[in-house]
Amino acid sequence: MTSKTVAQLLKADFKSQDIDIKGWVRTFRANRFIALNDGSSLQNIQCVVDFENTDEKTLKRITTGAAVHIKGELIESQGKGQSVEIKVNKIIILGDSDPETYPIQPKKHSFEFLRENAHLRTRTNTFSAVMRLRSTLSFAIHKYFNDNGFYYMHTPIITGSDAEGAGEMFRVTGLDPKNPPLTETGAVNYKEDFFGKETNLTVSGQLEAESYAMSLGKVYTFGPTFRAENSNTSRHLAEFWMIEPEVAFMDLAGNMDLAEDFLKSVLSYILEHNREDLEFLEQRLLDEEKTKPQAERSEMSLIDKLKFVVDNNFKRVSYTEAIDILKNSKPNKKKQFNYIIEEWGADLQSEHERFLVEKHFKCPVILFDYPANIKAFYMRLNEDGKTVRAMDILFPGIGEMVGGSQREERLEVLKEKMKALEIDEEELWWYLDLRKYGTAVHSGFGLGFERLVMFVTGMGNIRDVIPFPRTPHNADF
Ligand code: 4AD
Ligand code: MG
């Protein structure tokens, strides 16, 4: 007996071997043909049941969703649509699935419905394809860094510091919310909490990654991050995965080169290794677009879009240039933007970012040298005294994919900045130490993994590219 996956069987050039396979029934038709899927491939394998020699009771239990164990022979297919099929000699029902109540019927379900059934949605082609791609992408990311001499480090998930200074954190506490210990002034006394201080779920592993870059040279993190921002959009999650490389002796230009090379490399890997899933999702998008007016359809198919990013240079544009382009743009002049760009210094909203990538440049764009006061405290101040060496990479259909910067390596400048923003030096004493002892130019960036998965799969909602999404008012499963 050989135990093989559907993917292996469909590729096999051997015939008539004894086959032993387990999977879930996608459909059972004419009391004879089982479409069996085991997750190894988008394809099902057809299993042909000899219904005359199978007892009625067993046949009745072959329903959509049931788990079965099939023993038989792999033969050249008699029918159309597949080259091989399994002639079933014995079928054992491992787990029944009541066709009356099983939520995943062999028909088209809305993504909203499938989100409510996120525990079963990977039994559909779309979600199994998305999650296989997500898995390959993770692997490609680790491979890229490993091939390029980076060390993978694990940064803490519970932390006392707010790296981004945005105050959008989830508190971690062991105190009784109904009866917390109080200080003399009536505030909650976190000295009595588990860690003896206020702690939160991390918004970024960057600060700790900097410490390791300043000793190991090239490091990266790839872990969960948490943001309590109450933005219920198709691009925000409260819990998402971030990839954060950090490199000593690398400046902002090197950071841009690294990010671009990294993105191109992982996309090439996907194009090479997940063709079947990509083609399926490409077709799904084409079908979806048929229902839209011509003007709203995308100019490129999914695979062409990925190839385009791999083959073309990202456009590098300073914030100042971008503001000029936006100020003079049609939607700004005609007041079609929700936020009209009036002057230098304005923070860019996603509508502006999308205008730049989708309408103006029509390619990935790296914006750099942002005004200091709209960016985080740790970014390297430029000689002009008002911009910082920040970069954001904007992608068509996604908006911000990457946020990064060269870090402020000068102790005094960093202290000044922290003072101005009322960031406690005592809290970040260790971060300041990195500037006190052997400081050097260093840079890094953060890439939102789910946004990359969205781009690769063409899925329009970030909730559909992570297994169990956490968003405002939703932490099911
Ligand atoms: O731009 P951000 O906030 O940058 C940082 O956290 C830096 N500390 C990174 C660094 O330099 N090491 O976040 C980085 C990326 C964004 O560009 C975006 O892709 C993603 O993380 N991101 C989110 N993805 C999903 N849901 C959210 N709520 C996200 N917030 C940020
Ligand atoms: Mg950002």
UniProtKB/TrEMBL annotation:
Its EC number is 6.1.1.22. It comes from the Bacteria. Belongs to the class-II aminoacyl-tRNA synthetase family. The keyword Ligase applies. SUPFAM superfamilies: Class II aaRS and biotin synthetases, Nucleic acid-binding proteins. This is Asparagine--tRNA ligase. It comes from Gelidibacter salicanalis. GO terms for cellular component: cytoplasm. The lineage of its organism: Bacteria, Pseudomonadati, Bacteroidota, Flavobacteriia, Flavobacteriales. Keywords: Aminoacyl-tRNA synthetase, ATP-binding, Coiled coil, Cytoplasm, Ligase, Nucleotide-binding, Protein biosynthesis. GO terms for biological process: asparaginyl-tRNA aminoacylation. It catalyses: tRNA(Asn) + L-asparagine + ATP = L-asparaginyl-tRNA(Asn) + AMP + diphosphate + H(+).
